[in-house]
Amino acid sequence: MRDELMSDSIAENARVLVVDDERNMRKLIETDLRLRGIMSHACGSASEAFEAIQKSDYDVVLTDVRMPGTSGLQLCEQLSQIRPDIPIIVMTAFGSLETAISAMRSGAYDFIVKPIEMDLLSITLRRAIEKRRLSDQVKLLKSTWDYRTAFGDVLGHSPAMRALYEKLQQVAASEAAVLITGESGTGKELIARSIHAHSRRAKQPFVAVNCAALSETLLESELFGHVKGAFTDARGERRGLFLEANGGILLLDEMGEMPMSMQAKLLRSLEERRVRPVGSDKELAFDVRVLTATNRDLEAAVADGQFREDLYYRINVIGIELPPLRSRGVDILRLAEHFVERFSTAENKPVTGLADGVAEKLLSYSWPGNVRELRNAMERAVALTRYDKVTVLDLPERIQNFSASTVFIGGLDPSELVSLDEIERRYINHVLEACAGNQTQAARILGLDRKTIYRKIRKDLPED
What we know:
Distance between the termini: 47 Å
Shape: elongated
Mean pLDDT: 84
Radius of gyration: 30 Å
Structural class: alpha/beta
Low-confidence stretches: 1-8, 144-149
CATH superfamily of the largest domain: P-loop containing nucleotide triphosphate hydrolases
């Protein structure tokens, strides 16, 4: 139990204020907490504690109930007025129900009975510290909730998102081709629409097409148009999307799925700024800014001969890489609150936010489906909840039961230790998992070239 607490990141840099008029008890608690990696400061009276709390910040106050002068319950009442954010745990040798009720009514977070079981105290402190940390995150969330960027529905205040906003402002004012990359569900089309809304083409059309949803023949007709009789079902003439978007912006989504032969036709049109409808011998000029989006590693696809290098450089004049949701910290809570508000309004249900414990689950989950998965989870939670706040049990089971993976390299037993090659293999796989399989991004993190990573991965695969 002790080792578990010492290794827990929740207890890192935690500070506990211990208040007890018995010197030996103060020393016992201070020593035990120090061994568990928790810093503490001890006071012999409530008045000393009240003065200390005004000079320094503490994560938890641990106080005896019966002390000369001001009692622990009175201290609870005083602190709950000036620092309601700090959890208070009271210690009492009189573990009656009445004492517990009095402590809670005075503002205590929890109580523990003397003689104290130190492992039980550790668990209680851990929960209180966790509550304080989550309260701080919620406070940060509320303090930045009114933060609005110029980019409408694109929400977030994390460093990664602030850097994205700065780049979007520059990109929107440009006419250059933009390649938007990011994992599935990160909001690539939303970013493209934001660029359009703040560009000089904002009053002109925004047209989007999913390149993976159409066969090569249909995609060519969709983009370039066709004349009557060009193929069996061509009963009339059709303007392609390049002409539909004329004067505005065309988004080619799932660009990495476009067939190679279609890539050649697209490259020619982009370079000449003209399209030839299917079945026609005439070319038509267009004025369109082209944005592309993909969740594939196009740089790796080029190296593997699966994507044209000349087209890659043509569409990737400016690259925008969207951060995965798991790297955006408290933005996860901000977006969750946003979706709860949206879906509670749509469902006409009085759901006002997140109950205790939900924030911890949302922040610890890896979100492989990114913002799209979070949106789906909150829509489900609002629909299922029977309370005025979303609870842990309203979340999908995969989020409730999620356990973060770690790179374990063995304990102190020599029989558990592994070779450097094994450590390297595990860490490479860990980085690739964090990068959703993007070898180019993983290579940058690892300081290796992409071919080296590929070779190391291949070495671990079983032979046919």
